[in-house]
Design goal:
The chain is built from 16 helices and 14 strands. The protein is of the alpha/beta class. It folds into two domains: 2-37 and 99-258 and 448-466, Rossmann fold; 264-435, no CATH class. 44% of the residues are buried.
């Protein structure tokens, strides 16, 4: 197997895609070392690596005690007390490292990478340096922040660069937000600076995975995930570096999906969930009252003229990827919402179901939030509520889903709630047997920060071709 080192690994979206790739029923890549600083994401990585190990021993199926934990028949603590699983967790901790990459620990990180790749003729470096400093939202919020220009996140890619300089892996894959294209620092474009640095004076040819050729514009490195089988409008910069001494290597473009993959394809079959009612005593009566108010207002305002959007049949590739091992549905609990928010969600989801892209301004007066600028164009409230529509890919699943349910409203008016962790994970193409460690807030945060594993799997397939596999 070809070793893979994952830096800034998050919960493991990229390395899941690489670890999943097989040729003639044999794994092509082995993730030999992962580096991540956030403790919950580290535990998620450890859990996933342990699951991979015990599943290999189980002939590829899910290890029975782990499956029981996903189904709620076994507590996490009980699973970790299982001798076989505990031994796998201990081995996983040997190559999943909790560390904040930076100048102070470069030598220690280098030692671990050296140990993991010492006997490999070829190996692959993957990862995405933290992107807050490049994101359009992050930059907008910090326009007048004097510390922004000194933010060390601008240059965390240099830790990635240091590994390239030291080890010169055969191939590298680096992911970041689309805002990188318009970010600047010290009067120079960040993307131009990064492309120059990563080339290492001709050591690497930096390629696009979606546009052929060498004369590339920065926008040619943007991958629109929804065009490649991901049920989500997620646009990210992904750089593919190929070491020049590998010689003539084949074309690397990803293959476009024949049809778009939709929210319905991803989450349409999941069990219904009822949100709890917050800021008052939770009860079925309060929940039903909110639903009936929304139905009454929808009938009054929509009338009989609207037709429901058609929903087509599912997507076999996505279905097999998400559900191929028959895992029970876990981490699928609805968040609590205020009774009036429940009614807003139901009303807006009804509009979306009838082909309307709803905004706050579409709410009837009975449901409008009490903000004096609510109807003023250009205010932050205009897009505050966003329904995910069955017949389209979702909007970008970002880390702020952990705080903002309004922006991720479930498309079913009868459920009138925001998305669950499992629904967000499916839109990100994490398989159903993927477990996220930590509180629900931290689970959402991990999901939103990840590279979609199905997209990573398709990138891994192209990397394998480059390396003659």
């Amino acid at each position: 197997m070809i070793p893979v080192v994952d830096v800034f690994a998050g919960p493991g979206g990229l390395n899941e895609g690489f670890a999943h790739l097989r040729r003639d029923d044999k794994a092509v890549f082995e993730v030999v070392s992962s580096f991540e600083m956030e403790p919950n994401a580290v535990e998620t990585l450890v859990m996933r690596e342990a699951v991979r190990e015990v599943s290999r021993r189980d002939g590829g199926g899910l290890y029975a005690p782990y499956k029981a934990m996903l189904a709620g028949r076994l507590q996490l603590g009980q699973l970790l007390d299982d001798d076989v699983f505990a031994a796998a967790v201990a081995r996983a901790r040997q190559h999943v490292h909790r560390v904040e990459l930076g100048p102070g620990n470069r030598a220690a990180v280098a030692d671990r990478i050296e140990s993991a790749t010492a006997h490999a003729k070829e190996w692959v470096l993957i990862g995405g340096p933290p992107c807050q400093a490049y994101s359009l939202v992050g930059r907008a919020r910090r326009t007048n922040d004097q510390s922004f220009a000194q933010d060390k996140k601008h240059f965390l890619y240099r830790e990635y660069l240091d590994i390239l300089k030291r080890f010169k892996p055969s191939v590298f894959v680096m992911e970041n937000v689309k805002g990188l294209l318009s970010a600047g620092h010290g009067g120079r474009s960040m993307i131009d600076r990064i492309l120059d640095d990563l080339g290492l004076d001709g050591t690497y040819e930096v390629r696009s995975l979606v546009v052929q050729g060498r004369d590339l514009a920065p926008r040619d490195f943007v991958i629109r995930a929804e065009a490649y089988g991901v049920p989500q409008r997620r646009h990210r910069v992904i750089l593919l570096g190929v070491r020049a001494d590998l010689g003539a290597v084949p074309a690397t473009s990803l293959r476009l999906s024949e049809t778009p993959v939709t929210v319905h394809d991803a989450i349409g079959d999941l069990p219904h969930r009822r949100s709890r009612v917050s800021r008052t005593k939770d009860s079925d009566i309060a929940w039903i009252r909110a639903r009936e108010l929304a139905r009454h207002l929808a009938v009054r305002d929509l009338g009989e003229a609207c037709r429901r959007e058609p929903v087509r049949a599912g997507n076999p590739e996505l279905e097999n990827w998400l559900k191929g091992r028959g895992a029970p549905i876990s981490q699928h609990d609805a968040r609590s919402h205020m009774e009036l928010d429940l009614a807003r969600y139901a009303f807006l989801a009804t509009l979306a179901e009838h082909g309307i892209a709803p905004k706050v301004a579409d709410l009837p007066v009975e449901l409008k939030p009490h903000h004096k600028n609510i109807d003023v164009a250009g205010t932050p409230f205009i897009d505050r509520f966003k329904v995910q529509r069955w017949s389209l890919p979702s909007s970008t699943v970002a880390s702020h889903i952990s705080k903002d349910g309004h922006y991720y409203i479930h498309p079913d008016p009868d459920q009138m709630r925001s998305l669950t962790v499992r629904e967000a994970a499916r839109l990100q193409t994490f398989p159903d047997d993927y477990w996220f460690y930590g509180t629900r807030t931290m689970q959402f945060h991990q999901v939103g920060n990840a590279v979609p594993p199905l997209l990573a799997h398709k990138i891994a397939d192209k990397v394998a071709e480059l390396l003659g596999q």
